[in-house]
C-alpha cells in the first residue's frame, strides 16, 4: 500500500472523486503542510495557518500506479491558478502534491513536466515532501457521501 497527499481546492470534491478510483483503498481529508499544530477548519479558513485543504490517499500500486493517479488528479484541477480552484479562493485552496516516499518525487516531477506541455502558463502546483497532516473534523470526512447534494467544484462524472 502506497500513500500520497493531494490538494486540489476544496477537499470535499477531491475526496469524492478520488474515492471512486479503482485501487484507492482509503482516503481522509485534512490540513497539510502548514505551520499551526492541529488547526481547526475555522483557523485554516483565515489563510493564516499555511495549511492546504488536502486528501491523504492510500492506494494499491498493484491496481493503480502513482503516475495514473496523478493523471486523474490533473484532470480535476487547474494547476496554473494560484490559491484558487473553482470559486474557492485563499491559500488553503492551493494545489499541491505532497509525497511521503521520497522515491515518488521523480514520478511526480515527470508527471508535472508532462502536464506542463498542455499549458502556456506555468504550473504552480506545489511538489513538496509531506511535512504535516492533520485530520479535518469528522463532519468533513466523506462529506459528499453524507450530503449528496452538497457543494462541489469538481465535475464528478469525469
Oligomer: single chain
Question: Which structural class fits the helix and strand makeup?
Answer: alpha+beta
Averaged pLDDT, please? 96
Roughly what percent helix? 25-40%
CATH superfamily: Peptide methionine sulphoxide reductase MsrA
Poorly predicted segments: none
Strand order of the largest sheet: 7-6-1-3-2-8
For the biggest sheet, the summary is:
6 strands, mixed
Number of strands: 8
Radius of gyration: 14 Å
Reading off the top of the CATH hierarchy, the class is best stated as Alpha Beta
CATH topology, by name, is: Peptide Methionine Sulfoxide Reductase, Chain A
Active site: 10
Protein name: Peptide methionine sulfoxide reductase MsrA
Function: Has an important function as a repair enzyme for proteins that have been inactivated by oxidation. Catalyzes the reversible oxidation-reduction of methionine sulfoxide in proteins to methionine.
Family: Belongs to the MsrA Met sulfoxide reductase family.
Structure commentary:
The chain is α+β, with helices and mostly antiparallel strands and 158 residues long. It has a single domain (2-146), classed as Peptide methionine sulphoxide reductase MsrA (Peptide Methionine Sulfoxide Reductase, Chain A), CATH 3.30.1060.10. The chain is built from five helices and eight strands, in the order βαβαβαβββαββα. The chain has helices spanning 11-19, 41-45, 66-75, 105-116, 143-146; strands spanning 2-8, 24-32, 52-59, 84-85, 88-89, 95-99, 126-129, 133-135. The strands form two sheets. The chain has a six-stranded mixed β-sheet, covered by helices on one side. Strands 4-5 form a two-stranded antiparallel ribbon. Helix 4 links the parallel strand 6 (95-99) and strand 7. The two termini are 25 Å apart. 34% of the residues are buried. The model has no long low-confidence stretch (mean pLDDT 96). Residues 3-153 form the Peptide methionine sulphoxide reductase MsrA domain. It is an enzyme of class 1 (oxidoreductase).
